[in-house]
Write a structure and sequence with these properties.
The chain is of the alpha/beta class. Helix 5 links the parallel strand 2 and strand 3. Helix 1 crosses helix 2 and helix 2 runs antiparallel to helix 9. The longest helix is centred in the first third of the chain and has 22 residues.
């Protein structure tokens, strides 16, 4: 990676690289997500915050699991049914197998995946995201979703992607951290602008439509813990796909998007994520 080592810090004149500041005293959404899915890359502040959030939002872990299943189904669909071989996954989070590249490269070993996140602990674990097949490629960019220029101008973006061929942009469980709807639309527009016709936008985000009281309590807890977040209704999520052609079944609770046997485990009241896939024409 250009300008930084795997710990996200530059070396001094003697080659010493200081460890990243993981801010372990403050809860972080990626580590809360990890904890609620049974992971081990979290700290006391994350576990304490998780307990407070799930007190009012008890089905959050089930909804998060449904989102992981959605990632698997949608990636397999894009690779196997639509022939996508290039993916940009922004808001990657901590590596949780199967990762997007594992699903895509199982279908098509030549697939190329660019991961993007700005959490230091994700950067520390980025090696787990780079176990590509020999035929394919994976890379990681340390950048914030809001800093679209840093993503689009990165060396890895230029090296991994062939912008003469369709690219699937995946924004899974990340847009609910953008509180302003206009800003969210603008971010997506900037990220989609350089992608050629035939490219896809894949999006999932928190909604309250399936369990309003529970989700509103949970979102309030996130905000009280210093993690700014919101939930969206159907119209707001559809608005994020503006100018693109939504594929059937459109924007829906993610357990209803091309469901398989795993999706059948979930009931709607426990799934608090809307998602969809749209194509740039």
């Amino acid at each position: 990676m250009s300008g930084t080592d795997w710990l996200g810090s530059k070396a001094d004149e003697d080659g010493y690289r200081p460890p990243p500041d993981l801010h372990t005293d403050k809860p972080h959404p990626a580590r809360i997500y990890d904890y609620l899915l049974g992971g081990r890359d979290n700290f006391a502040a994350d576990r304490e915050a998780s307990s407070g959030i799930t007190e009012g939002w008890p089905n959050l872990p089930k909804s998060m699991r449904a989102n992981r299943d959605f990632l698997v189904r949608v990636t397999r669909y894009l690779a196997a049914e639509l022939g996508f071989r290039q993916f940009v996954d922004i808001g990657t989070g901590l590596p949780t197998s199967p990762n997007l590249h594992e699903v895509a490269q199982e279908v098509a070993p030549e697939s190329r995946i660019l991961y993007v996140d700005n959490d230091p602990i994700v950067l520390v674990h980025a090696r787990a995201l780079l176990t590509s097949t020999p035929e394919g490629r994976t890379a990681y960019v340390d950048a914030d979703l809001r800093d679209t220029d840093a993503i689009l101008n990165s060396e890895e973006y230029r090296e991994i992607l062939d912008l003469d061929r369709p690219v699937a942009l995946t924004l899974l469980a990340v847009m609910h951290y953008i509180l302003d709807q206009g800003e969210a639309r603008d971010i997506i527009a900037r990220l989609m602008e350089p992608l050629p016709q035939g490219s896809a936008l894949v999006l999932s985000t928190t909604t309250h439509i399936s369990a309003p009281e529970e989700v509103h309590k949970g979102i309030a807890s996130y905000n009280a813990k210093g993690i700014a977040a919101r939930s969206m209704d159907q119209t707001e999520v559809e608005d994020l796909f503006g100018g693109l052609e939504l594929l059937p079944p459109g924007v829906t609770l993610i357990n209803h998007w091309h469901p398989d046997d795993a999706a059948a485990r979930f009931i709607d009241a426990h799934v608090h994520m809307l998602g969809g896939v749209a194509i740039k024409r």
